Amino acid sequence: MRRSWRFTHWLYLAVPLVLLVVFTYVPVANLISYSLTDWDGLSKSSRFVGLDNYTELFTRPKLFQVFFVSLFYLAGAVVQIVLALYFAAILSAKVRFRAFFKGILFFPYLINGVAIGFVFLYFFQPGGTLDTVLGLFGATPQLWLGDPDLVNTSLAGVSVWRFLGVNFVLFFGAIQAIPTHLYEAAALDGATKWQQFRHITLPALKPIISITTILAVSGSLSVFEIPLIMTGGSNNSTTFVIQTLKLAFQFDKVGLASAAAIVLLGLVLLVTWLQRVLVPDERVEMT
C-alpha cells in the first residue's frame, strides 16, 4: 500500500508532463535545430549553417529596429495597469451597479482578437466613429492607421482596451482577499482612504503587480494579432513577431526566422529574470 501510494502522485502528473513535453519542449528543441540550418520551409533537406543565422540577425540593425514599436505597447501596458488598479480599487467598495461595471471591463477580453481588429478598423477609418465623435469638439479627421506618427499609438490604445479586463480581475481578486478588519482598524485610527490604499492595499498587491509587469513586458515584445489584422505591419507598425513571420513565410527563410524566435524567447526570459532579481517576491502577511 505504501509503495503504491508513493507512485500515485506520479500517475496524476504523467498526463500534464507528457503534454508539456510534447507541446512545449519538443517544439522548442525543433526550433533550435531549425535555427542552425538554412531550411526554407519547403525543401526536404537543409544545410547546417551553425550560428550564421544568429550572426546575420545581430549584424543587421534593421531587424531589431522593430523593437522600438514595442515601446508604444509597453507605454500602453503601463496605462493599462494603472487603470486596472484604479477600477479595481473603486469597484472593490460597495458601489451601485458594481457587477455591471465589472462585466463591461472584462468583456473585451472575451472577444476574439480578429473580431476586435475588424471592429476597430471601422472605428479608426477616416470619417469613422472616432472622427465623428472628435468632430463634435471641432477636431479635424486624422489618418489614425495611415499616419506613421499615429498608427502605433492607435494600435496600442486598442491593446489597452482589450487586455484591461485581465489585469482588473487580478487586482480585484487580490483586493478582495485583503481582510476587511485591516481597513476598519485603519479607519478607527484616522487613516484616510489614500493612506489605507498606500499602506494596506499596495503592499498586498506587490505579487500581482510583479506578475502584471512581467506580462506587460513580454506582451509588448511579442505583439502580433492586433497590428497584423489592422495594418498588416504597414506604416512603421511592424512588430518583431510580424517580421519573423514574414521572414519565414514570405521570404522562405525559416532558419533565420527560427533564430529570431529563439532570440525573442531569450529576451523574454532575460527580462523576467531581471525583474525577479531587481524586484524579488516578498511574502506579504496580512494580519
Protein architecture, described:
The protein has 287 residues and is an all-alpha fold. The protein contains 14 helices and no strands. The protein has helices spanning 2-35, 52-58, 62-65, 67-91, 98-110, 113-124, 129-135, 151-176, 180-188, 193-204, 206-221, 225-230, 240-250, 254-278. The model has no long low-confidence stretch (mean pLDDT 86).
Q: What attributes does this structure have?
A:
mainly alpha; 14 helices; 287 residues; globular
Q: Into which percentage range does the β-strand content fall?
A: under 5%
Number of H/I helices: 14
DSSP strand count: 0
State the end-to-end distance: 41 Å
Helix content: over 70%
| Mean pLDDT across every amino acid position | 86
Shape category: globular
Which class best fits the helix and strand makeup? mainly alpha
Secondary-structure element order, as H and E?
HHHHHHHHHHHHHH
C-alpha Rg, in Å? 24 Å
Largest sheet: none
**Any low-confidence stretches, pLDDT <50, length ≥5?**
none
